């Protein structure tokens, strides 16, 4: 047991959503005690530490959605925070490039969305202007998005937690403690972990890839499930880095919530390309062959996943083939940059996206937070939740009892 201490708040999950929430709670309630409980031995080891490191502008999202609102507000807060605490970041801007007439039409819709979402400074540019900005990219039309940028999200997480612990000696970080039970009794919530039990007045669960299982542990009846989609990255060799100035994105396929393989300069100086989006047989599986019985069985016996596969089998097969073939991956990259070759890229790391899928096989696009008596569950926090983390934290806190 964690002594007889009753925490005012206990946050589960040391990714960017959990740590932003714990940090914001400590700003709002400096006198209250806050515990942060994470199953791994370090913070930000899953989606947060394995993402593209992009500060999204908010241009893509459905106007009025939580994603659109939180991305706009969250981006502004994140950039201010990064400046204040010296976190490596750069507002380098990005181009979204249409390479065909059909893509141009989708690009026009994205531009309209961006105007409605008040994405600052966006401009349509023609093929000459594309070449001026990115000499190695070929496209018929593009959107220049000056507010997009790059950041080190793990540093953001570490800074949130440093500030949380400095604010009040009663605030505590517990690493290596996997939550395995949640129950309520007399206005208190008991949180059982693999090593220790905790008591708190309010619990906020930000479990990323396990958000659905943690909600079911709390007896919530959900009509959705988290399905993992792995994204693999390649890196440009030093000799090819000059081919990329800033962020370069394709026009995304509007049927899917993923943005397509893109070129991403990182704050450390590398340039990455990716990620693809492949169904994974293990929620936290970062190898192409990772497998977990429970994760696979749960995903493949859920009617939503079966419908998702039935409706998108062609795309799924394409993604699978590309995951195992450098040639096919580079073929995709060539659509934006015809001169890129297999010799110029090397496979690096991967991440797994937690994608909520509904019973009809639909990919649930927007953020989803459920408040119940004493426990709040962040059920769906896909991209751009890292960009939006501080606004998502405000949203969570505003809904607490
Ligand atoms: C490949 C990829 C690229 C992306 N690119 C971007 C991008 O460029 N920009 C952007 O804004 N977003 C991006 N995203 C999305 C973004 O990374 C996620 O939306 C965000 O990190 C979600 O944060 P989280 O805290 O909810 O989840 P996570 O970071 O996954 O954190 C959840 C935490 O909960 C812990 N946990 C789970 N179960 C338990 C348990 N039982 N007990 C205790 N702890 C538990 C986990 O160990 C983990 O640390 C990307 C995601 C991926 C995967």
Walk me through what this model shows:
- It is a single chain.
- With 401 residues, this protein is of the alpha+beta class.
- It has three domains: 6-48 and 154-223 and 366-398, 3-Layer(bba) Sandwich (FAD/NAD(P)-binding domain); 94-146, no CATH class; 225-358, D-Amino Acid Oxidase, subunit A, domain 2 (D-Amino Acid Oxidase, Chain A, domain 2), CATH 3.30.9.10.
- The chain has helices at residues 16-28, 66-84, 101-116, 127-133, 153-167, 211-217, 293-300, 303-311, 313-323, 326-334, 389-398, and strands at 6-12, 34-37, 54-55, 89-90, 94-98, 123-126, 141-145, 149-151, 172-174, 179-185, 188-193, 197-205, 224-236, 247-250, 262-265, 271-274, 278-279, 345-358, 368-371, 375-380.
- The strands form four sheets. Strands 1, 2, 9, 10, 11, 12, 19 and 20 form an eight-stranded mixed sheet that branches. Strands 13, 15, 16, 17 and 18 form a five-stranded antiparallel sheet that branches.
- Helix 1 (16-28) runs parallel beside helix 5 and helix 1 packs across helix 11 (389-398).
- The mean pLDDT is 95.
- Residues 12-18, 37-40, 45-48, 50-54, 56, 178-179, 206-210, 214, 231, 275, 351-353, 381-387 line the site of flavin-adenine dinucleotide.
